[in-house]
Write a structure and sequence with these properties.
Rossmann fold; 36% helix; 7 strands; alpha/beta
């Protein structure tokens, strides 16, 4: 009996993988790696980029640039999807390395991240701006020497009361209901990212930032 691996080799021999477009943009989702942090508020960026990449037909599973990556396209533009695995406070190390490798300026780095200022699932899009106290954005700004990168912030809800420890809150698990409010925005996030990568940030802001 012919070995199955040999059979597959014969069937697929000579078939070439479709060439990927050159990387023009980095699309980054912020979060913390590992099962311990899966589904936490601080991992809303991971949740968002996974949803967008899935709709783009891309798997983010290749280890590179201190993170997990996947190459694909949005709106006909070559994109590197990146999930830094340096932990949130050092996210910029991964972003800087990938940006340097592909020669991508800050203006073509789109970042998905969580935001505790908004109710779960609310989306805010900005062309650039300050880190607003978000340590992941802060480190990216420091590492790039610029805050001129667009970002899509996903609401995860405010602390239940002012005395509640911020770290405990952002590292707490999203409730099933709040998680659904974020994943239900998958289409909006995909369309918004496609518009941003296509150079139409204003339309993305007007249509999906609410």
């Amino acid at each position: 009996m012919t070995d199955l691996n040999e059979l597959f080799r014969r069937v697929f021999a000579g078939k070439k993988e479709e060439p990927k477009p050159p990387v023009e943009w980095l699309v980054v989702g912020l979060g913390n790696p590992g099962d311990k942090y899966r589904g936490t508020r601080h991992n809303a960026g991971y949740i968002a980029i996974d949803a967008v990449a899935e709709k783009a037909g891309v798997k983010i599973d290749r280890a590179a640039h201190k993170g997990l990556t996947g190459r694909g396209a949005l709106g006909g533009h070559g994109v590197l999807f990146l999930k830094p695995e340096t932990y949130m406070n050092s996210s910029g190390e991964s972003v800087r390395e990938a940006a340097a490798f592909y020669k991508i300026p800050p203006e073509r780095i789109l970042v998905f991240c969580d935001d505790i200022s908004f109710e779960p699932g609310r989306v805010r899009i900005r062309r650039s701006g300050s880190h607003g106290g978000h340590n992941g954005l802060r480190n990216i700004t420091e590492q790039l020497g610029s805050e001129a990168f667009p970002r899509i912030r996903i609401g995860v809800g405010q602390k239940p009361h002012p005395e509640y420890d911020l770290v405990d809150w952002v590292l707490g698990k999203l409730s099933p209901e709040d998680l659904k409010k974020i994943t239900d925005k998958a289409d909006d996030l995909f369309q918004a990212a496609t518009l941003v990568v296509s150079g139409d940030v204003e339309t993305a802001m007007n249509r999906y930032s609410h």
